[in-house]
Amino acid sequence: MAEGHTITIEQSSRHVRVVHGGQVLAESDRPLVLRETGCPERYYIPAEDVRLDLLTPSDTHTYCPFKGTASYWSLPDAPDLVWAYPEPEPDVARIKDHFCFYEAEVS
């Protein structure tokens, strides 16, 4: 990690639910919480708890020097709403096979 830049990943037992347009896209009691310097706290949801059948892979990819290359998925009215790191950097390997949403309700 760059000096002063930290990423921590912890197992959470909080309930995370993602709803868009009245439709539940994901719901999990076993998300990972990722905290990164300068970024909002993000919940990464296991693939098994995500309605992948509702999402369409996007051509968008972004690169983070700390996490790796992200792939994105979209809904018809919400492009690039979801992302994941198929081959994350070794320091954040736990987020492999987990999806993150821009909008998530945490309870």
Automatic annotation (TrEMBL):
It holds the Pfam family NTP_transf_9. InterPro entries: DUF427, DUF427_sf. Residues 16-103 form the DUF427 domain. It comes from the Bacteria. This is DUF427 domain-containing protein.
